[in-house]
Automatic annotation (TrEMBL):
A divalent metal cation 2 binds at residues 121, 191, 226, 257. GO terms for cellular component: cytosol. InterPro entries: Creatinase/aminopeptidase-like, Pept_M24, Pept_M24_MAP, Pept_M24A_MAP1. This is Methionine aminopeptidase.
Length: 293
């Protein structure tokens, strides 16, 4: 890695990152579009009286219609096609019949797809019914916008820590209704993605200085950027099912995620229907052309 000022530990980390060529990124874009279709169908169906298992069945149909496979189902024994995380559940909620959505709930729908061996992964927060507080609406907005701040930091020459810093900085600069600070979840973060769903490097949603700067971002670098933010604590615990992650203080949370590829022409948001074009334009960034047209 001549010409790149990294220490041996950072160099080793960079060598573990799977760098994709344009043809491989195009395949990841195909998987990302399936994920986008899953989100659209599930978000529209997430109404009061609908069980999380019904959402899972909707996601399974979208996968089947596109000839894709879920990268969640069977992963480490996970029993669902998607993760359905309601209210104080941060991530990894298991779809089931007994969890029926109620008016006023907030649900994170985390979905993934495999197309031709390449992965897509994304999450969004959905408001169920009506009557949500301004505090909850702002929580979701802050979480989503921090994700886009991280995406905007995916520039050639930046390092992994610059993405973490952009996410954390955005969140910390937002005033929290009622005072206090948002809880940036500590134990979970983003990750590399490509021929597997979870790959190096791990992406924190805050800066932890002892980890160093991480590898430089180069064309072909792909990340799943996913801030998780609560109204209270950054601490979590895993329930007895060994999957469901909840906040330790019972405060509600929001989770947003996109898979993103850095190309020679800029970032391409693989799991956004328009490739991130509209949102990145708002941030003064030109999205890379969509390889699928």
């Amino acid at each position: 890695m001549e010409g790149i000022d990294v220490n041996p530990r950072q160099e080793a980390a960079a060598q573990m990152v799977e760098i994709k060529n344009p043809e491989q990124i195009a395949k990841m874009r195909a998987a990302g579009l399936v994920v986008a279709a899953m989100h659209k169908a599930c978000a529209e169906a997430a109404q009061p009286g609908v069980s999380t298992k019904e959402l899972d069945e909707i996601a399974a149909k979208v996968l089947a219609d596109h000839g894709a496979k879920s990268n969640f189902l069977g992963y480490g024994g996970f029993p669902g096609n998607i993760c359905t995380s309601v209210n104080d559940v941060v991530v990894h909620g298991i779809p089931d019949r007994k969890t029926v959505l109620q008016n006023g709930d907030v649900i994170s729908i985390d979905a993934g797809a495999i197309v031709d061996g390449w992965h897509g992964d994304a999450a969004l927060t959905v408001f169920v019914g009506s009557g949500h507080s301004a505090e909850l609406i702002e929580l979701s907005r802050v979480t989503e916008e921090s994700m886009w701040a991280g995406i905007a930091a995916m520039k050639q020459g930046n390092r992994l820590v610059d993405v973490s810093r952009a996410i954390e900085t955005y969140i910390r600069r937002q005033p929290k209704p009622g005072g206090g600070r948002y809880g940036i979840i500590e134990d979970y973060g983003g990750h590399g993605i490509g021929t597997e769903m979870h790959m190096d490097p791990h992406l924190l949603n805050y800066v932890e200085r002892r980890r160093g700067k991480g590898p430089k971002l180069v064309p072909g670098f792909c990340l799943a950027i996913e801030p998780m933010v609560s109204l209270g604590t950054p601490k979590t615990e895993v329930l007895e099912d060994d999957w469901t992650v909840v906040t330790t203080d019972g405060t509600w949370s929001s989770h947003w995620e996109h898979s993103v590829a850095l190309t020679e022409e800029g970032p391409l948001v693989l799991t956004s229907p328009d490739g991130g074009k509209a949102k990145l334009a708002e941030l003064g960034i030109t999205a890379a052309p969509d390889p699928l047209g």
